[in-house]
Specification:
Number of helices: 4
Distance between the termini: 27 Å
Strand content: under 5%
Radius of gyration: 18 Å
Number of strands: 0
Largest sheet: none
Structural class: mainly alpha
Shape: elongated
Amino acid sequence: MGAHADHDMGHTVAGWTGTAVVTLGFAVAGAAFVAGSGPGLWSGAALVLLGAVAAWTLHLAGRGKATGPRPPELRHWRTPDPAGRHGHPDCLGCRLAGRRTARAAVPASARAAAHAPAGAAAPAPGTNARV
């Protein structure tokens, strides 16, 4: 194990997707700048914007994470955030989406599921959570 073996680096589907698309956008814009291509610059800028929107959308869909470290069993990058669809306290992205972000606004069942051992939390009835 590396130096960060017990540290939550924040790797999530939202984070990886946003980073990949934004990086591609910067590469396209950089190459277009060197080539002197106006349409290429606009394409790169559009990709950067698309990456930001994709990361935000995935975060709101529960594929991101709240600020701060997660319990060890929820640190795998593909593990959905049980409380993500209800809004995270002190999260700018959730506030911009109009989510209630007060700690009391997150249902107790979602808070409990966020700290339950892996495999112990079943998806709430009526949700589309994949197991």
